[in-house]
Every structure is written in structure tokens, then in C-alpha cells.
Design brief:
By secondary structure, the chain is α+β, with helices and mostly antiparallel strands. The chain has two domains: about 100 residues, no CATH class; about 180 residues, 3-Layer(aba) Sandwich (Trna Endonuclease, Chain: A, domain 1), CATH 3.40.1350. Helix content is about 25%, strand content about 30%. The chain contains eight helices and 14 strands. It has a six-stranded mixed sheet with strand order 7-8-9-12-13-14. It has a four-stranded antiparallel sheet with strand order 2-1-5-6, covered by helices on one side. Helix 5 packs across helix 6 and helix 5 packs antiparallel against helix 7.
Length: about 290
């Protein structure tokens, strides 16, 4: 069995007959509706395309590309209830990358009326960072399905691992830089992770004070998804767990205190400048 679960969003164990030569040549990411953004550091022109891999002695299915979390745009649907100022008739928009003190936020889900933002929720995506290289496993899989690849790639013995500790700590520190901004303007931020990463965080950081089920009024929400195999051999994201806390709770988890505040109007101006027909959110779209 290949350690590569999905390549360019196609399951390597699907019961469907896939033209892997065409898939590898096209290099398309359906979640972004564009060419894959993951490239090799040694050669940026080569797009890797590995969405998820099996890892460890228990062969855990680990998502390693944050864009894989965009499947069906379900993660945005699962944030809509946090738009407490949304009213019937308003449009939903998903706007990428808005800059805040301490860094940018991956996406904003906004309730919009006549071009004006009435409410918004920030959404951060985080998957596990891999160490080493998945490239030889990718190449061996393509070779196994009849796609011609360089022999040196197949013979290469390099392996890969998962950087659990650094991914978890860096994520929580970055969240703490941002969550005070959201709390200061009475808005909410959602961190979207895989269930395995949340379990690691709960085991290695102070998460006991976080609320499960989540409190609607909390500024920080964590949504964890399981990566589940379907009867056809394909894979699907399913919401597994939700937690919530506030800025103080995030700081308590890692023992940090950072103040980073920004005026509400600064965020609204950026959001409204990016809203267009391309950002309109259709519930249920892939």
C-alpha cells in the first residue's frame, strides 16, 4: 500500500479507474480551482500534489496540505452560526488573506449587505508540517500505476516524518497574537485542524479550561475534522469536535501574554475592498 493517500486530490486507493498520467501532468487542485501550490524547494517548477499521507506505525491518515481542508467548503458552512449579526437577505462571502497585527488570517467569512460588511468570522487553516521529503513515496506510487518517473527517484531512500511539536506550538503562539484583536472588536476567530493535531495539542498543552461543547460568545473556536475513508476508497472530511475559549484561554494554553489590537474599521476596509462576485460563497459548492 502506498503511503500517499491522495495525489492532486485523487485517492490512490479509489475504486474508480483514474488516468494517473493525465492527473500528474495536469497538476490541478480542485479545492483551489487552479494549479497546485505545493512545489519542491529544490525545483519550484515541480508541483508535488500530495494532499495526505499515511504516517507512523498505526498508519494514521494525515492531511499535510491546508488547501485539502477546503473540500466542499464545509469548513466555512460550519462557521456560519458564528455570524450573529447576519440577517436574511445578506450575502455570504469568503475573502482570503486579510492582514492583522501579528500576521494575516487565511480567510474571512463575511455577511454582506449592499457591499457593506455587517459581520465576519476569521478562519485559520492548519495542517501538520512534514519533515524530510514525501517525494520518493510519491514517485514510487506513480511508477506503480504506470507513470514514467526517473529511476533515481524510485530508488531514493529518503523518508518523511511529522513535526507535531513545532506545528502545535507555532500555531498556538500565532493564534495568541491574533485573538486579542478579534476579542477587542467583539468578533470570532476559528482554527480549523485535523482531529489528530487537536488531540496532540490537548495532550501537550493546557487545554483543560476550554469549553466543550463550545460557548457561542467565546472569541476563539477550534473545529477539528476527521479524515475518513468512504466505501469507494475516496476520502472525506467530517466535523469531529468543537472547542472554544477566549484570548486569556489561548494565553493560558501556552503561558504567553501578547497584546495586538487593531481598529474594526481597518479590517472592514480591507474586506470591502476585496469583495466581488468571485468571493461570493455558495453553500455546498466544492
Amino acid at each position: 500500500m502506498s503511503k500517499v493517500i491522495e495525489l492532486f486530490a485523487v485517492s490512490t486507493s479509489s475504486s474508480a479507474k483514474n488516468n494517473w498520467e493525465q492527473i500528474a501532468a495536469k497538476r490541478w487542485c480542485p479545492f483551489l480551482d487552479r494549479l497546485c501550490l505545493k512545489n519542491r524547494k529544490s525545483n519550484p517548477d515541480i508541483l508535488i500534489g500530495t494532499c495526505a499521507v499515511f504516517h507512523g506505525k498505526h498508519a494514521l491518515p494525515i492531511v499535510i496540505c491546508p488547501h485539502r481542508l477546503l473540500e466542499r467548503r464545509q469548513i466555512f458552512t460550519d462557521c456560519l452560526h458564528l455570524l450573529t449579526l447576519h440577517e436574511p437577505g445578506n450575502e455570504f462571502h469568503v475573502v482570503p488573506e486579510i492582514t492583522l497585527p501579528g500576521g494575516s488570517v487565511d480567510y474571512f467569512v463575511a455577511s454582506v449587505a449592499r457591499g457593506k460588511v455587517k459581520d465576519f468570522v476569521g478562519v485559520e487553516l492548519q495542517t501538520l508540517d512534514s519533515t524530510g521529503t514525501v517525494w520518493p513515496e510519491r514517485q514510487r506510487f506513480l511508477d506503480s500505476v504506470g507513470v514514467k518517473v526517473p529511476a533515481r527517484d524510485i530508488k531514493r531512500q529518503a523518508s518523511f516524518g511529522m513535526n507535531w511539536k513545532m506545528t502545535a506550538k507555532t500555531t498556538l503562539v500565532q493564534l495568541h497574537h491574533k485573538i486579542e484583536t478579534f476579542e477587542n472588536i467583539n468578533k470570532k476567530l476559528v482554527l480549523v485542524v485535523q482531529d489528530f493535531l487537536l488531540s496532540y495539542m490537548q495532550a501537550n498543552f493546557a487545554f483543560g479550561h476550554m469549553s466543550e461543547p463550545p460557548r457561542q460568545g467565546d472569541s476563539m473556536h477550534l473545529h477539528a475534522y476527521r479524515f475518513a475513508r468512504t466505501p469507494t476508497g475516496d476520502w472525506r472530511l467530517e466535523l469531529a469536535k468543537r472547542l472554544s475559549t477566549d484570548a486569556e484561554g489561548v494565553g493560558q494554553a501556552i503561558g504567553l501574554q501578547v497584546t495586538a489590537k487593531v481598529e474594526l474599521q481597518t479590517i472592514l476596509t480591507q474586506l470591502e475592498s476585496k469583495i466581488s462576485s468571485k468571493t461570493a460563497f455558495n453553500v455546498g459548492a466544492r
